[in-house]
Design brief:
single chain; alpha+beta; 3 helices; 8 strands; about 25% helix; globular
Length: about 160
Amino acid sequence: MTSSTQSAPRDGLTTVELVWIEKRIENRIRFGRPAHQTIIDKRRRVVGFAPGSVFAFVRWAANDFGTVVSRIDIVRTVLPDEPYQRLPYIRPGGEILLKIASWDKVQRVLQLIDAIEAIGLDPAEAAPDYWRQTHNRLVAGGTPRVYSLEQHRAFLLRKRATT
């Protein structure tokens, strides 16, 4: 599902449609802090993220013959008047930090997210450049680096120095 306009929603939230149909479709948020949630029915809900938020959106679908879609997108929601990229199920879209398809690579990203949580950090707070680097390494067939506390401290210092 994509937006038909190029402007952010009036409330400023970026919305994500989540769908769950057992053994067929699973669209879910792996990390991120929704600011709003609307339950449509037992299989669908819509969550909204504030501008500047980062979240991971996992999509999986299968048919009678097995998995047909396996992907993860890590997205930063845009501020008003910022450019963005359109993505299925996300309105209006966002800044794509990581976009990975195929179960092997998606599984690797999920392991990296688990590793960030294991050192006591929220993956939504990790440096955006880390997700971009991880995307580039996986697409090129390389091995992404594990996010470290030292890398996170350096990111926070850079962020503080530029604001």
